[in-house]
Structure formats: C-alpha cells, structure tokens
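Reviewer 2 asked us to include a model.

Predict the structure of this chain.
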Amino acid sequence: MRDYTKNRLLQWLRPASMMAVFAACLNTLAAREQLLPAEDSDAIHWNIVGECQMIVLGQKAALKLIPDLNDPAKIEGAYSQLEAMIEKEEAQLAAYLLVKTFEGEKAETEETEEIRYPVDFEVTRLPTELGKLSPEQLLEVIKALPRALLAPTQFEMRKVGVMFELAAAVRANGSWLSVEVAAKHVRLPQMLKYDAGLLPSGEHLEVEQPQFSVIASNSSMPVVNGQRILIGFHKLTEPAATYELFLLRVTATKVK
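Predicted model (structure tokens):
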C-alpha cells in the first residue's frame, strides 16, 4: 500500500501531469467567467451638466412666449427672443445656476443670504428702583418708556435667494435622461408689523416679522439629452403683472 501511494505521488509530480492539472484549473476559471455578467461600460462614466435659468418678464410677453417654450421644436427660437429681451432690459435674468456631477450623483448649488429673525419674546423687566415711586410718578415713567419693551429670546434662520438641485440617470445610451430637479427662488419683499400689546400711554406695541415669498418647481421626468425645457411658470406678487420662468437644460457626455 505504501509503495502504491508513493508511485501515485510520483505520477502527479511529473511535468505532464502538472500541466494537465494547471490546464484543468484554467478551464474551470474560464467557465466561471462566462457565467458572470459582463460590465456595461456604457452605463457608467457619464458627465452630467445641469443649467437652470430664472428669467423675470412682463405678463404680456410671458403669455406670448409660453406656447413656443412648451414646444420642443420652437423652444430655441423662443429662448433667443428671451435673450434679446434681456439684452434690451425688457426682461431680467434673475439667476443662472450651473451644476456638474456624475450620473446617479446628486448636485446642488445656491446663491443665498441667511436672514435671522426673532420668533419668541419676553416682556422687559422694569428696574426695582421704580418701586420707590408713587403711583402717579410710576405712571409717568411708564408712559415715557420706549416702545421696545419686548426682548427676543428665540430666533430662526431662513435662506433667501436661489437654489438648484439635480440628479440624472442616462437612458438609451445617452439619447435621453431621467432627471430629478428642484429649483427654488425665495424672496423677502417686506417686513410686516404685528400688534403685541398696548402701553399705558395708549400706544400699540408692535413686532416686525419677515414675509417670505417662495416660488419652486420640483419634478421627476424624462428629458432629451441637451434639450432646453420649461419647468416653471410663476406669477410674482411684486412687481405687479410679472412672471418668472424656470428653464432647464441637462447634458450628458460620455467620459473618454
């Protein structure tokens, strides 16, 4: 039995036998490679560029351009008219936002200012020395106090400006894209005064709070690669009879 095992081991160690074993291993690996899914090189390595323009113009001009802006065959002609109106100051380019990313990755940009404003108050305490005054004297002092008797104790923060977010996936080898887009324009047109009480003098105590104006467009949709589209048509409260258009163009190019 010992001699038989020794002979078999010597056979395995012969060059021809070793080559046969090596070839069998290679064949096994090749068979496994055929079972594995091949990488789709066209489904990755795409650069995505997103452009969002926010344009403000009068109601009459906006309504005239809307049909062409919604027509893929005519939108570039309508956009050329918008460019001419901006150059003549008949329309205003409120924002031009640009993002660059890879396919499947979210990109965002903003041009904003943070506004801090009070949301909670407490009544200012009067000095203890006032307790030594007579009621008549105390009343006169209270009447002469400044109107700002409320001290802010809590604040909130709000961003004012323009914001743009985009994510895109390439479809049909780059012919069209599946996009998720969010565009927003936040304004602070005015501060409003609210009644916060009545002073002994008969004057009303007032607190100022911001009044924000928000227009936004959020969409998930298919778009043709490189084609401009209208994604938002918003009426503004100020100035009167004006609209703001949101125009989007997303372009995907394969990384070489």
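Helices lie at 2-12, 15-35, 59-69, 75-87, 135-144. The chain has two domains: 1-36, 46-118+158-254. We have added this to the supplementary material.
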